[in-house]
């Protein structure tokens, strides 16, 4: 009986090392927004990592020990479908029910300032860089956006920025036959609800305001004097409401806040656990 008991005993968790690959989504190169703008992305880069897979459901408080972890960081080309090797996940076999991650900038319990990892440093201490053109109402503007994303003193220091949402069922088994874990990102889900229409609005003049009439910058007079009009195209620039002639539209204000909120609340990567065939 003793031999039978040993033969059926659970060997317990086994050490596991799994290649981690990261990929983007080529379909995100062209995005139609909810307000009717057409975005064409020429550049999309995301600083990703570290990454943790936890045995318990979502929540940093319930993940004292990760089942799998990757403590590095890597820049992801958001417009490239091809999986790129980023590093190796280390851990042990068993079930995982949630994930946690940072976007190249990690909050520390021992420091007031977050730690900028190599990937974010490569992007100028940003988590995300986007660049392209936006078309709306028959006009086109070059645009760009940059975002550093990390926990702050107002949130929870020392914990990863992104947690898998409780509404998203996540359940995988870490086994020794895993050949790869792939994490795929889509910029389209973050950008689709961003409203670009205010950047194309033609507002009436008010004292000392800077408004746009197509590609013309209009500096409104204090009184009833003449308007000062500049053709931005003649300077190889574009007109941005409130700013006048600019090399490009830098996303800011409500549009940038929407983008940030979408990333934090709807990060939603597609995670695939690939296994070796027998």
Number of helices: 4
Determine the strand fraction and express it as a percent band: 35-45%
Main structural class: mainly beta
Poorly predicted sequence stretches spanning 5 or more consecutive residues:
1-7
Query: Measured on Cα atoms, how large is the radius of gyration?
Result: 24 Å
Name the strands of the widest sheet in spatial order: 14-9-4-5-7-1-16-23
> How many domains, as an integer?
2
What distance separates the N and C termini?
33 Å
Largest sheet: 8 strands, mixed
Q: Count of DSSP E strands?
A: 23
The residue fraction in helices comes out at 10-25%
Outline, from the CA principal axes? elongated
Q: Give the integer mean of the pLDDT values.
A: 89
Observed structural traits:
278 residues; mainly beta; 2 domains; 23 strands; elongated
SSE topology sketch:
Elements: H1 2-8, E1 15-23, E2 30-32, E3 38-48, E4 51-54, E5 68-70, E6 74-77, E7 84-92, E8 94-96, E9 98-101, E10 105-106, E11 115-116, H2 118-122, E12 128-136, E13 139-147, E14 162-163, E15 172-174, E16 178-184, H3 188-191, E17 210-213, E18 216-219, E19 228-231, E20 238-240, E21 244-246, E22 249-250, H4 253-265, E23 270-275
């Amino acid at each position: 009986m003793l031999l039978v008991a040993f033969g059926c005993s659970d060997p317990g968790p086994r050490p596991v090392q799994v290649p981690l690959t990261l990929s983007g989504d080529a379909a995100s190169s062209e995005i139609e927004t909810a307000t009717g703008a057409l975005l064409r992305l020429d550049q999309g880069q995301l600083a990703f990592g570290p990454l943790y897979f936890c045995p318990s459901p979502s929540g940093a408080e319930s993940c004292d020990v990760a089942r799998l972890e990757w403590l590095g960081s890597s820049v992801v080309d958001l417009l490239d479908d091809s999986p790129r090797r980023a590093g190796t996940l280390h851990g042990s076999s068993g079930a995982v029910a949630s994930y946690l991650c940072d976007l190249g900038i990690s909050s520390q319990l021992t420091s007031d300032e977050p730690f900028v990892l190599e990937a974010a440093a490569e992007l100028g201490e940003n988590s995300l860089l986007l660049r392209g053109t936006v078309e709306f109402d028959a006009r086109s503007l070059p645009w760009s956006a940059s975002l550093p994303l990390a926990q702050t003193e107002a949130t929870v220091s020392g914990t990863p920025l992104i947690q898998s949402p409780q509404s998203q069922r996540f359940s995988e088994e870490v086994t020794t036959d895993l050949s790869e874990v792939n994490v795929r990102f889509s910029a389209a889900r973050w950008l689709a609800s961003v409203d670009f229409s205010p950047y194309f609005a033609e507002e009436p003049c008010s004292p000392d305001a800077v408004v746009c009439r197509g590609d013309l910058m209009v500096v409104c007079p204090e009184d009833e004097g003449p308007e000062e009009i500049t053709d931005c195209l003649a300077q190889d620039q574009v007109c941005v409401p409130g700013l006048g002639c600019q090399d490009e539209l830098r996303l800011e204000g409500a549009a940038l806040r929407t983008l940030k909120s979408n990333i934090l609340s709807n990060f939603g990567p597609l995670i695939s656990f690939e296994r070796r065939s027998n």
